[in-house]
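Entry 14. Structure prediction run on the chain below.
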Amino acid sequence: MTHQRLITKAQIADAIAQCSLVSPHTVPLLEAAYHGVISLLALPRGQNAPLATLNQAGAPAIVVVGDDTADGLDPGPSGWPCTGRLIRWANRGLINATGGTVEDYRGAVALTVHCRRLVLVETGSARAGEWLKLSLLL
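Output returned:
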Protein backbone atom coordinates (compact mmCIF):
# COMPACT_ATOMS: atom_id res chain seq x y z
CA MET A 1 0.00 0.00 0.00
CA THR A 2 1.49 3.30 -0.98
CA HIS A 3 -0.18 5.37 1.73
CA GLN A 4 -2.21 4.96 4.89
CA ARG A 5 -5.70 6.37 5.11
CA LEU A 6 -7.19 6.85 8.53
CA ILE A 7 -10.83 7.67 8.81
CA THR A 8 -12.53 9.86 11.35
CA LYS A 9 -15.26 8.92 13.81
CA ALA A 10 -17.66 11.03 11.76
CA GLN A 11 -16.83 8.97 8.67
CA ILE A 12 -17.40 5.76 10.62
CA ALA A 13 -20.74 7.12 11.84
CA ASP A 14 -21.70 7.88 8.23
CA ALA A 15 -20.67 4.35 7.21
CA ILE A 16 -22.81 2.90 10.01
CA ALA A 17 -25.81 4.84 8.74
CA GLN A 18 -25.25 3.71 5.15
CA CYS A 19 -24.53 0.09 6.02
CA SER A 20 -27.57 -0.17 8.27
CA LEU A 21 -29.63 0.15 5.08
CA VAL A 22 -27.47 -1.73 2.58
CA SER A 23 -25.50 -4.32 4.55
CA PRO A 24 -26.74 -4.36 8.15
CA HIS A 25 -24.65 -7.43 9.00
CA THR A 26 -21.50 -5.25 8.91
CA VAL A 27 -22.79 -2.72 11.44
CA PRO A 28 -21.40 -4.56 14.51
CA LEU A 29 -17.87 -4.30 13.06
CA LEU A 30 -18.26 -0.60 12.38
CA GLU A 31 -19.78 0.11 15.79
CA ALA A 32 -16.96 -1.74 17.53
CA ALA A 33 -14.40 0.27 15.54
CA TYR A 34 -16.27 3.50 16.30
CA HIS A 35 -16.10 2.80 20.04
CA GLY A 36 -12.44 1.75 19.90
CA VAL A 37 -13.11 -1.86 20.85
CA ILE A 38 -11.33 -3.12 17.72
CA SER A 39 -9.18 -1.87 14.89
CA LEU A 40 -10.87 -2.63 11.58
CA LEU A 41 -9.35 -2.97 8.14
CA ALA A 42 -11.47 -3.70 5.09
CA LEU A 43 -8.82 -4.82 2.66
CA PRO A 44 -9.17 -3.52 -0.90
CA ARG A 45 -8.55 -6.10 -3.61
CA GLY A 46 -4.96 -6.28 -4.75
CA GLN A 47 -3.65 -4.34 -1.76
CA ASN A 48 -1.27 -5.47 0.92
CA ALA A 49 -2.51 -5.23 4.47
CA PRO A 50 -0.74 -2.67 6.70
CA LEU A 51 -0.37 -5.21 9.49
CA ALA A 52 2.33 -3.24 11.31
CA THR A 53 -0.07 -0.30 11.61
CA LEU A 54 -2.75 -2.58 13.04
CA ASN A 55 -0.26 -4.01 15.52
CA GLN A 56 0.79 -0.53 16.65
CA ALA A 57 -2.83 0.49 17.27
CA GLY A 58 -2.85 -1.73 20.35
CA ALA A 59 -6.50 -2.74 20.01
CA PRO A 60 -7.63 -6.18 18.91
CA ALA A 61 -7.64 -6.14 15.12
CA ILE A 62 -9.78 -7.65 12.39
CA VAL A 63 -8.95 -7.70 8.70
CA VAL A 64 -11.93 -8.23 6.41
CA VAL A 65 -11.09 -9.78 3.04
CA GLY A 66 -13.98 -9.07 0.66
CA ASP A 67 -13.62 -11.96 -1.75
CA ASP A 68 -17.30 -11.87 -2.70
CA THR A 69 -17.66 -9.76 -5.80
CA ALA A 70 -20.98 -8.62 -7.22
CA ASP A 71 -20.12 -10.22 -10.57
CA GLY A 72 -19.51 -13.61 -8.92
CA LEU A 73 -15.92 -13.79 -10.17
CA ASP A 74 -14.42 -14.20 -6.73
CA PRO A 75 -10.66 -14.70 -7.17
CA GLY A 76 -10.14 -16.86 -4.10
CA PRO A 77 -6.95 -16.87 -2.02
CA SER A 78 -4.65 -16.63 -5.04
CA GLY A 79 -6.22 -13.27 -5.95
CA TRP A 80 -4.93 -11.62 -2.79
CA PRO A 81 -1.19 -10.87 -2.70
CA CYS A 82 -1.11 -10.79 1.10
CA THR A 83 -2.85 -14.11 1.79
CA GLY A 84 0.31 -15.71 3.20
CA ARG A 85 1.08 -12.70 5.39
CA LEU A 86 -2.47 -12.70 6.73
CA ILE A 87 -2.26 -16.38 7.66
CA ARG A 88 1.01 -15.81 9.50
CA TRP A 89 -0.36 -12.70 11.26
CA ALA A 90 -3.77 -13.98 12.36
CA ASN A 91 -4.48 -15.93 15.51
CA ARG A 92 -7.83 -17.05 14.09
CA GLY A 93 -9.71 -16.99 10.83
CA LEU A 94 -13.40 -16.99 9.96
CA ILE A 95 -14.89 -17.76 6.57
CA ASN A 96 -18.29 -16.38 5.72
CA ALA A 97 -19.70 -17.92 2.55
CA THR A 98 -23.36 -17.56 3.50
CA GLY A 99 -24.08 -13.84 3.33
CA GLY A 100 -23.68 -13.30 7.06
CA THR A 101 -26.03 -12.05 9.73
CA VAL A 102 -25.77 -9.38 12.39
CA GLU A 103 -25.24 -12.17 14.93
CA ASP A 104 -22.39 -13.64 12.85
CA TYR A 105 -20.62 -10.29 12.83
CA ARG A 106 -21.23 -9.69 16.54
CA GLY A 107 -19.56 -13.06 17.04
CA ALA A 108 -16.64 -11.91 14.87
CA VAL A 109 -16.20 -8.86 17.11
CA ALA A 110 -16.24 -11.04 20.24
CA LEU A 111 -13.74 -13.46 18.71
CA THR A 112 -11.49 -10.57 17.67
CA VAL A 113 -11.46 -9.25 21.24
CA HIS A 114 -10.67 -12.74 22.52
CA CYS A 115 -7.94 -13.74 20.06
CA ARG A 116 -6.58 -10.22 19.27
CA ARG A 117 -5.92 -10.90 15.54
CA LEU A 118 -8.67 -12.16 13.26
CA VAL A 119 -9.04 -12.47 9.52
CA LEU A 120 -12.64 -12.57 8.29
CA VAL A 121 -12.99 -13.77 4.71
CA GLU A 122 -16.25 -12.95 2.96
CA THR A 123 -16.47 -15.21 -0.06
CA GLY A 124 -18.88 -17.01 -2.33
CA SER A 125 -19.62 -20.70 -1.94
CA ALA A 126 -17.50 -21.53 -5.01
CA ARG A 127 -14.30 -20.41 -3.23
CA ALA A 128 -15.16 -21.37 0.35
CA GLY A 129 -13.27 -24.68 0.15
CA GLU A 130 -10.05 -22.97 -0.97
CA TRP A 131 -10.24 -20.53 1.93
CA LEU A 132 -11.10 -23.34 4.35
CA LYS A 133 -7.94 -25.25 3.41
CA LEU A 134 -5.88 -22.16 4.21
CA SER A 135 -7.72 -21.47 7.46
CA LEU A 136 -6.61 -24.86 8.73
CA LEU A 137 -3.10 -23.44 8.78
CA LEU A 138 -4.07 -20.94 11.49
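The chain is about 45% helix and 15% strand.
Filed with the rest of this week's runs.
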